[in-house]
Each structure stands twice: as structure tokens, then as C-alpha cells.
């Protein structure tokens, strides 16, 4: 290889130390005191401008005096458009586990950003993925943010040596950073709906927390393969064994531990890869220089033991690998392919570790995302024809299908107008293309397409399957399917029901127009943000997932629309349900001299026995056979059932988790009507509902409080006074972690009382 190398001095992070020598096949060069290297390489007739961090990823047959690994940046490779090399991942966790910090490091090591900024940094910039002022001020993620990077895998020898070439492909990774607070759970739901895989972060100090469990269940709902990453290993009190025990006991997962740390807590130095049996160290100001060395002698015995256990575990669950393992005829690719297979089949989940803020282990995580998580081609999607009620994963998932199918999972109102975030599942999306919004049976022309990087957009002319883009100019809600004309829809996302409401008070008439505009926008963007008018007081009622959820919208109204809103006390959204089966046989009959009313319905109501938190809905099932009731009257019965369930008989709250089954009935040729059957349904419901032992459902919060150990008794007292049931207490390094289940109504104003009782800052 012939190359001419020039160095330009630009402001860049320090990537290599002084007096480092590198060798290629025909070129020898040394760099002395190179703080800010940028290299122009003239390779034959091709000019490539790269930061020095990318040199190794683009040279072939490149030899060095030591194995050195740099981050991947630079010129796009044709492999980026190979559908096998596309990854769509989400990063999810309990609040304050380091999701946004991890994403910031990923962007930096991939060359997407030039500098690292912290979530609660003092430079006034904040993390790239936290684009809202409120996010930067509060130090939390409120909205999910989309970005994309290019990454290149390197083997343990880093593709460096006389017999190795850098033949590993480039990968295109679309990333969605999601909130960790339960109040913004819809952001996690709609992100996971369109992602193929995820990284679940677990704080290595706190372990599995309440929202960790919630997010894990959300991933299960969408059958998302995942990698688990133990973060904050450089923190005092970090414990791998405790985290593994909690993952197995609380989440029931089967883990494949692929790494162990070199040191732990403040003594964390690096990571040992149990597959490659190599030690990785992360040097440089931001850990951007990753070196591969032999495992320290003091840890070699433990590493050998865990490597043996890892291979045995893989062989126990994969017969193909077991055969090669027994014959001692396997290599690194065989191990990785088997791990990938087990991950995609949800048999086991890879366990990685490091410290995002400490700049350790992130590059290895990116490699593992490429190795073990599914590509777009591995994505299993469920469709249904528009006139059908059943979803089927075999309708159009064929290799030769060339039509367009996309799913709009999020909409945001911006200076460009409404941006519709869309995952493309089939075909090519082009600017100016006419598409069908299937649920609305409406055709529209796509005005502009954008690739998204947090709050920045880059206009593109087209996007291919597997990609996530934003479309401008569409007037449609989120959760809809777009096609080139095919009447199919994709399975919708799960939208949880609001649990807290607030009434708007003393609204100025001068603000009514701005208020209406703000509420309509927020309701369109967020399916869990609801607006109702109280029929008695005529007050505007805002409903959402919690106090914080609603307070954020109130603050946004003030900042973005200049509206100061006064609100009443939070109102808990109770629900009603039944606990046992009850039959009904009801006849509605009325004569008034002329045409009368006649309708008879027979059947039963029963509770839905599944997890009530997954089924806050009602079901109507028609088991009627015969001609005694016309088909249009069946629709009236169903509508009547849905209407009466809007207001239960105990406290006037909506009825959920109930199934209405129609088995028989009768009609009259003259006196029967839609109204008659609707009234008959009302009567049947009232008859059966009281016999079905109805109850009121109250939202219960899973609360975790972290406090200094000396305030344990005060903290426990504040929870028990609010009718909390303590479920677990754990002490780690003089810090007490208390878990409890507390009625939502009792949690209003709790943080103020807790801080008053303890006189210190408490995390909850």
C-alpha cells in the first residue's frame, strides 16, 4: 500500500501519546507530541480525510508495535447500506442509571460529536440527546431522542498483524435514548414498538430497581432481544454478584456473562473479555484510546474459570455449538454466532459491564451490539388487513415483497411543521412519493425526509427499509401505518391509561386561544396526555401518567405559549372492575300505543383473568348463532356495552378488565330497533354487574427511596403513614434502599414531607 501522509493541526482531543510509532506495509512514520492530528491519506487516486482515530479502521495489513484500537469515524462504507448491518436499538433503564451519559459516549466514540458534555454539567451545554431546556435544567430525559451512528467492529487482534486484514463491515446503528421516569413511559412504549433490540442499563450500585422491572416487561411485550449492561462499575459500592442475583431473582433472566472488570469501584482499570480472553484498557482524556493486552496474571485463573463456565453454558443451550465444543473444533465466530442465536431466541441475554461516565467499556458494548443483536432482516412484525380483526406475522413478511410499509410512531411540532418519526419496514421512502395512511384511508404526498440527530435534522432524498427518518408535512396522528397502497396495518403500540388528573382554574379569556392551541398540540404528540371537560363544573381536566408528567406540560405552556395556568389538587383516576362471573337474561319491552320497543339479550360477564395492568380495557364477544337477532342489532349491543362501561355503578368511574359475552337473544319484526337493543344491554349490564361482585381499582405506586442509613427509621415512618407496604430494605455502604407499594393518592406531596422529616436530600 502506498500512502502519502499529511498532518494538519486542528483542535481535537488528544488521541495518542508522544513518540508512538506505527508501521504499514510500505510506509513507516512516527508522530511526536501529536495532540491534534488530522490525517489526509492519498491512496492511489482516492483522497480520504480522516481524524487519526480512523486510520486503523481503514488500513489493511497494518502492523504496530502494540495492539491499539481507535474509535470508528470517517468515510462511509458501502456495507452501511447492507440491510444485514443495520441495527435499531433503544437504551432504557431506571431513572439516573446513565442512559443519556452512555449515549453521549457512543456518539463521541463514533465521531458523531466532537466533545462530551454531561447531563448535569457545569458548562451550560448539556448532553446532546437532552435537547429541551427543561431536560437540561432538571437533569432528566423527558422525550425520547433519535440519532444514528456508523461503527466498525474490530477483532481481538484489532485486524492488525501479518495474517489479519480489516475485513469487518461497517454497521449503521439507529439509536433511541428513552426517559427513565415512569411518568414518561409512553416514550419508552413507542420507541420499543419500532426497535429491533435494546440495551438495558442496570446501575451496579443500586441493581434492579422499580423502573428496571417495568422497562424489562415492556421489552417482553414487544419481544425485544436485549443486552444487559452493568453501568457505574467505578462507583463506590458497585457489586457484580449482587446485580446478577437481582437480575436472576427479580427478572428471571438467564445470563451469559461475557466480561469481568479489572478492579471495581474507584479502582476500576479495564475490562476482561471472556470470549477473546484479552484485557482492554481505556486511556486518553476520554477513554478514546483502547488498548488490548494480556490478562493480568492475578486475574488469569478467575478468567479461565469463567471462560470455561461460559462455553459450557452456551453448549448446554445450543446443540450445534455443543458438537463443535465436544470436538474442540470451534473459533471466536462460532462462539459469537451461538450467543447471537441464543439472544435472538430469548434463551439467554449477554451481560456486559463498564462505566459510561468513567469512559470504560463503551466501545466493547458497541461491538457487542453489532455481534449479538438482530438486524432489520431479523425483525418479526405483525400485520393485519384493514378489514380484518386478526394480526398475522405471515401476511407480507416475504423476501420478495417490494412494496412500501412504514409505521409512524411519534410526531413532534417543530419550526419545520409537524415531523412524523417513521420506521421503514419494507420498500423505499422517497421525497414526493404518494403514500396511503391506511387507518385514515387518505393519500398524501411526502414533502421532505430527514435523518435525525437529536434536535438536528439533515434532509435526504430517500430512505430504505430498516431506517428511521422524520417526514414533514403529514397531518396524521402517531401509531398509523403508511403504504404505497396496500390495505394492511401494523400492530399498534400499547398506550397506558392516565392515572392522575388536574383541573384548570381561572383561565383568562385572553389566553383561551393560546391554551387551546397548546392543549391540542400536546394531546396530538402524547397519547397519554388527555383532555376532558367536566360535565358538571365545565372545568377543563388534564389527565396524565403522574404529577411530574402534568407539571412538565404546565411549565411548557408557560414557556412556549406564555400562559400562566392555575390548577386544582391532583385527582386520582380510579377504575371499577368485577371479580366473578355473572349471567344475564334481560328483556326490554315497552308499549306506547304505536310501534313499541322489544329486545332480549342473554349471556354473561366475566373478569379478564390476565395481568390487570396489561388489560385496562373491555372486550365484547359475540357467540350468538342463529337469525333471531339481526347483525346490525349486534353492533348496537356492542355499542351499548361500551357506552355503559364508561361510567360504572360503584363510583361512576370507567369499568375495565371485563368481558361481555352474548350467547342468545330475540328480536321482534316490528318493535325491535337499535335503541331497543342498546337499552336492553344497559339493563342486562346493571342486572349482572351487581351480582359479579364489583370492586374499585386504585393506582398503586412502586416506590424506591434511597437515604443515608441514619435516617432509615424516619423514612420508613413516612411511608407507613401513607399506607405504604414495605416490600424490601437493603443497606449498601451506609445507604439504605427502601422499596414499598404505596397508593398513588397518598404520594402527592410526599417528597416535601420526606425531606422535612430527614433534613437531607433524598432520592426517590
UniProtKB/TrEMBL annotation:
Job of this protein: Mitochondrial GTPase that catalyzes the GTP-dependent ribosomal translocation step during translation elongation. During this step, the ribosome changes from the pre-translocational (PRE) to the post-translocational (POST) state as the newly formed A-site-bound peptidyl-tRNA and P-site-bound deacylated tRNA move to the P and E sites, respectively. Catalyzes the coordinated movement of the two tRNA molecules, the mRNA and conformational changes in the ribosome.
The residue ranges of the Tr-type G domain are 84-377
Compartments in which it is found = Mitochondrion
The Swiss-Prot or TrEMBL record annotates one GO molecular function as: GTP binding
- Name the residues that bind GTP: 93-100, 177-181, 231-234
Q: Which SUPFAM superfamilies does this entry report, sorted A to Z?
A: EF-G C-terminal domain-like, P-loop containing nucleoside triphosphate hydrolases, Ribosomal protein S5 domain 2-like, Translation proteins
Asked whether the UniProt record includes Mitochondrion among its keywords, one would answer: yes
Entry protein name: Elongation factor G, mitochondrial
Keywords of this entry? Elongation factor, GTP-binding, Mitochondrion, Nucleotide-binding, Protein biosynthesis
Its GO CC terms are:
mitochondrial matrix
In terms of PROSITE patterns, this protein maps to: G_TR_1, G_TR_2
Question: Could you mention a single GO BP entry for this protein?
Answer: mitochondrial translational elongation
What InterPro entries does the database record attribute to this sequence?
A: EF-G-like_DII, EFG_II, EFG_III, EFG_III/V, EFG_IV, EFG_V-like, G_TR_CS, P-loop_NTPase
In the record, the note on similarity to other proteins reads: Belongs to the TRAFAC class translation factor GTPase superfamily. Classic translation factor GTPase family. EF-G/EF-2 subfamily.
Pathway membership, UniProt? Protein biosynthesis; polypeptide chain elongation
Amino acid at each position: 500500500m502506498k500512502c502519502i501522509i499529511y498532518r494538519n493541526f486542528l483542535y481535537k482531543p488528544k488521541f495518542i501519546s508522544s513518540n508512538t510509532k506505527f508501521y504499514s506495509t510500505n510506509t513507516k512514520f512516527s508522530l511526536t507530541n501529536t495532540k491534534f492530528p488530522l490525517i489526509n491519506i492519498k491512496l492511489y487516486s482516492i483522497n480520504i480525510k480522516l481524524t487519526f482515530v480512523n486510520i486503523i479502521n481503514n488500513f489493511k495489513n497494518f502492523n504496530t508495535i502494540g495492539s491499539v484500537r481507535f474509535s470508528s469515524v470517517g468515510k462511509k462504507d458501502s456495507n452501511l447500506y447492507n440491510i444485514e448491518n443495520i441495527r435499531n436499538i433503544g437504551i432504557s433503564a431506571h431513572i439516573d442509571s446513565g442512559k443519556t451519559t452512555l449515549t453521549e459516549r457512543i456518539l463521541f466514540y463514533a465521531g458523531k460529536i466532537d466533545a462530551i458534555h454531561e447531563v448535569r454539567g457545569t458548562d451550560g451545554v448539556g448532553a446532546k440527546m437532552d435537547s429541551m431546556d427543561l431536560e437540561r435544567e432538571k437533569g432528566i430525559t423527558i422525550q425520547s431522542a433519535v440519532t444514528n451512528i456508523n461503527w466498525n467492529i474490530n477483532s481481538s487482534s484489532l485486524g492488525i498483524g501479518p495474517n489479519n486484514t480489516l475485513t469487518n463491515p461497517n454497521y449503521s446503528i439507529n439509536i433511541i435514548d428513552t426517559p427513565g421516569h415512569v411518568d414518561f413511559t409512553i416514550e419508552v412504549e413507542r420507541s420499543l414498538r419500532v426497535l429491533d433490540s435494546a440495551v438495558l442499563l442496570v446501575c451496579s450500585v443500586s441493581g434492579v430497581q422499580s423502573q428496571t422491572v417495568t422497562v424489562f416487561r415492556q421489552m417482553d411485550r414487544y419481544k425485544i432481544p436485549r443486552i444487559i449492561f452493568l453501568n457505574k462499575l467505578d462507583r463506590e459500592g458497585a457489586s457484580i454478584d449482587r446485580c446478577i442475583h437481582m437480575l436472576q431473582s427479580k427478572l428471571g433472566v438467564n445470563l451469559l456473562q461475557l466480561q469481568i472488570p479489572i478492579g471495581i469501584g474507584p479502582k476500576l482499570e479495564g475490562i476482561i473479555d471472556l470470549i477473546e480472553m484479552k484485557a482492554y484498557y481505556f486511556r486518553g482524556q476520554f477513554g478514546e484510546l483502547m488498548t488490548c493486552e494480556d490478562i493480568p496474571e492475578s486475574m488469569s485463573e478467575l478468567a479461565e474459570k469463567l471462560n470455561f463456565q461460559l462455553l459450557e453454558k452456551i453448549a448446554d443451550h445450543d446443540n450445534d455449538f455443543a458438537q463443535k465444543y465436544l470436538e474442540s473444533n470451534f473459533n471466536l465466530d462460532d462462539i459469537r454466532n451461538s450467543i447471537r442465536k441464543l439472544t435472538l431466541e430469548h434463551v439467554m441475554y449477554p451481560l456486559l459491564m463498564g462505566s459510561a461516565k468513567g469512559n470504560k467499556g463503551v466501545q466493547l458494548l458497541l461491538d457487542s451490539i453489532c455481534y449479538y443483536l438482530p438486524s432489520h432482516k431479523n425483525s418479526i412484525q405483525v400485520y393485519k388487513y384493514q378489514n380484518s380483526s386478526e394480526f398475522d406475522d405471515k401476511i407480507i413478511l416475504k423476501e420478495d415483497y417490494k412494496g412500501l410499509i412504514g409505521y409512524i410512531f411519534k410526531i413532534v411540532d417543530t419550526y419545520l411543521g409537524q415531523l412524523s418519526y417513521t420506521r421503514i419496514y419494507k420498500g423505499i421512502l422517497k421525497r414526493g412519493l404518494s403514500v396511503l395512511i391506511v387507518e385514515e384511508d387518505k393519500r398524501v404526498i411526502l414533502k421532505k425526509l430527514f435523518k435525525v440527530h437529536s434536535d438536528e435534522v439533515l434532509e435526504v432524498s430517500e430512505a430504505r427499509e430498516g431506517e428511521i427518518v422524520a417526514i414533514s408535512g403529514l397531518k396524521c396522528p402517531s401509531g398509523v401505518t403508511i403504504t404505497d397502497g396496500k390495505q394492511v396495518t401494523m400492530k399498534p403500540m400499547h398506550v397506558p391509561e392516565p392515572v392522575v388528573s388536574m383541573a384548570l382554574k381561572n383561565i383568562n379569556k385572553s389566553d383561551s386561544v393560546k391554551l387551546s392551541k397548546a392543549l391540542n398540540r400536546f394531546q396530538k404528540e402524547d397519547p397519554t396526555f388527555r383532555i376532558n371537560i367536566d360535565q358538571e363544573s365545565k372545568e377543563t381536566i388534564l389527565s396524565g401518567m403522574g404529577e411530574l408528567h402534568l407539571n412538565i406540560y404546565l411549565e411548557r405552556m408557560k414557556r412556549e405559549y406564555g400562559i400562566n395556568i392555575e390548577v386544582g389538587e391532583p385527582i386520582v383516576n380510579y377504575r371499577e372492575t368485577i371479580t366473578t362471573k355473572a349471567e344475564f337474561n334481560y328483556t326490554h319491552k315497552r308499549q306506547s300505543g304505536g310501534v313499541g320497543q322489544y329486545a332480549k339479550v342473554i349471556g354473561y360477564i366475566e373478569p379478564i383473568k390476565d395481568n390487570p395492568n396489561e388489560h385496562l380495557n373491555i372486550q365484547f364477544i359475540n357467540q350468538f348463532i342463529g337469525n333471531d337477532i339481526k347483525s346490525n342489532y349486534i353492533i348496537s349491543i356492542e355499542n351499548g356495552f361500551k357506552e355503559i362501561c364508561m361510567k360504572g355503578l360503584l363510583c361512576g368511574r370507567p369499568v375495565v378488565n371485563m368481558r361481555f359475552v352474548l350467547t342468545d337473544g330475540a328480536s321482534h319484526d316490528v318493535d325491535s330497533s337499535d335503541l331497543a337493543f342498546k337499552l336492553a344491554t344497559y339493563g342486562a349490564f346493571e342486572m349482572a354487574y351487581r351480582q359479579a361482585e364489583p370492586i374499585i381499582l386504585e393506582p398503586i405506586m412502586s416506590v424506591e427511596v434511597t437515604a443515608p442509613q441514619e435516617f432509615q427509621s424516619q423514612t420508613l415512618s413516612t411511608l407507613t403513614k401513607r399506607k405504604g407496604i414495605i416490600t424490601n430494605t437493603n443497606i449498601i455502604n451506609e445507604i439504605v434502599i427502601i422499596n414499598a407499594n404505596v397508593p398513588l393518592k397518598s404520594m402527592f406531596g410526599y417528597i416535601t414531607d420526606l425531606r422535612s422529616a430527614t433534613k437531607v436530600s433524598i432520592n426517590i
